[in-house]
């Protein structure tokens, strides 16, 4: 392979790996998963990889065995969410790159198809999350009326949070607005329950906001020795939990429960 072709390949591969890493971080991957996926693909091309992964930034350095060709760059990821379809798809793609010896162009083509996959529609998400909230209420001893209350509260709370995100409010304020909306609806059932407490509905109305993925990634990073990212993700989960609690507290104060 000529020098120009080699330089072109390592640059294209580096850009692709940075893009993959940023997608993984924004989709909710742990630091270890991101590192393993990038290393797996780069190893299949015969390059050595060194990188630094922070909560929102990826710094990548590639070089060949003879240290003749280098790539060094960084990329910032978009705000984090959860996209299991993308996580699983990129994992499969990384193994295909190893087993089928995919070229950089083939990897980019398949990656583009993954990114372009349609998401569930908004109303499907709202309905299914509402049903999940109702199920949690039932598990915690709620009756049929409690489950209906939680369904309405969850759908309304998630809708308000989505709208707040669309309007570009601070992410923690979006959680607070969602928790406040859901707990106000469930709290009304407690306040005006006519002799029935409806406490299971109030307690489970905000469970859809619990930061499960950030907290799981916190322990995953901690176990793997990525303490800096573990602390950042743990603090993020703690602030989200505080915003949820503040929403509940506001509703409790309003209804004097």
TrEMBL record:
Keyword Transmembrane: yes
Organism of derivation: Pararcticibacter amylolyticus
Keywords: Cell membrane, Membrane, Transmembrane, Transmembrane helix
Domain Threonine/serine exporter-like N-terminal: 16-252
Family membership noted in the UniProt record: Belongs to the ThrE exporter (TC 2.A.79) family.
Taxonomic lineage: Bacteria, Pseudomonadati, Bacteroidota, Sphingobacteriia, Sphingobacteriales
This protein's GO CC annotations: plasma membrane
Protein's membrane topology: Multi-pass membrane protein
Annotated signal sequence range: none
Keyword Membrane: yes
Localization per record: Cell membrane
Name recorded for this polypeptide: Threonine/serine exporter
Spans through the membrane: 172-190, 196-216, 237-255
Gene Ontology MF terms: transmembrane transporter activity
